[in-house]
# Entry
Amino acid sequence: MPSPLDHALLRDLRGVVGPGGLRVRPAELLALTSDGLPTHHAVPRLAVLPGTREEVIGVIRVLHHHHAPWVARGAGTGLSGGALADREAVLVILTRLNRILHIDPAGRRATVEPGVVNATLSEAIRHLGLQYAPDPSSQSACTIGGNVAENAGGPHCLKYGVTTNHIVALDVLRPDGTVVRLGSPSGEPWGPDLVGLFVGSEGMFGIALSVTVRLVPLPAEVRTFLAGFPTVRAASEAVREIIATGIVPAALEMLDQASVRAVEASIYAAGYPTDAAAVLLVELDGRPEAVAAESDRVGTLLRQGGATTLRTARTAEERARLWQGRKKVFGAMGRIARDMVVQDAVVPRSALPDILDRVEAVGRFHGLTIVNVFHAGDGNLHPNICYDHREPGARERVLAASREIMTACLAVGGTITGEHGVGLDKADQMPELYSEPSLRQMCAVRHVFDPEERANPGKVIPVRYCREWGRGAETL
# Structure
């Protein structure tokens, strides 16, 4: 229950959002104790659900007045513990801000509130022959505001780029309650790239009240290949050969045999060959003549690489089915284990075969099943570590395996996250990637936006480099 100190805060927040916009009872807060990462949990001080831009501003001004730390939260689909608030912090939930504010077909721009679901935007503009390119696997649930916070990617970001490549302007609410405009709808602002600085800041700089995004035309021609391989290494080497030609597929995804079998046994069955050790999805798009020429070359490379199954989607429905299997694979993993950590790291494409061997060895050593589903074209690995949290010591083995995989990726010139963010999960490994002066400089940049470090405290940068609010999340 709220402490006596909280009652003044509750009174002031209730004055902004009304009694229906607050959640304070333990049963109400229980649903907000984790995001998509099951190894970290935290109970927030309370939760507030503003319904308009003005209410969000009012809430943050109240929190600033009370010197209360806070965490912004979207749909809660994040995979790094980045949207968790401990008992000292207030959770500010933005899902009610879900309006598409403006669409400019001629200028290929749209302005949305942070709670707009990713897939909803593309559905709203499809009739205009346009799309919003970043397409995380959770796009049917995740929000644009969360995508901005994490610089989300997705299968088609190999060709089209990640979130930061598609954001041109932001209205940002700073932790002191002031609002600033970053960028320009024209995409040509003067001065430093403050939009690029804000995108991927994981909620530590403030809240994006509105987001102006760049739209791209739907391609005139799309061709999607499904290729099955006898080994994961053969599939990895085929990826390397395709990229080496200079062809940039719209998407180039890999699934290993365990993930294929899980999908094919589920309602998301996509017709993947269950006898293949690995499956590649390769999608080409663009002008019809270019797609035809690239398809001939890619098909030849896949066959030369040892593909034992090779087919092309013949209809839009068949293509959608192939992608449904890829996008819903994480849901299908429930057939393998009760719990799963979806990890995220990036390595040079040339290192993929050896790193995948290393991931397999880590799983064997810790007695864990690790399933691989990832963006092979840009080396963005997603080792899915399967476990049952009820087993004694299971969580500790998962965390140890995760750390060893990240360290192995760093050793070959990679990094510890491509699109899921650092959050709570990998903050302790930041010193393996950055020097102490670099980490302190990151803190200095943060202080430009949030001098008191009240926005999403305790995330990304180890607390010994920055100040800390409270004790951080309890890891269960």
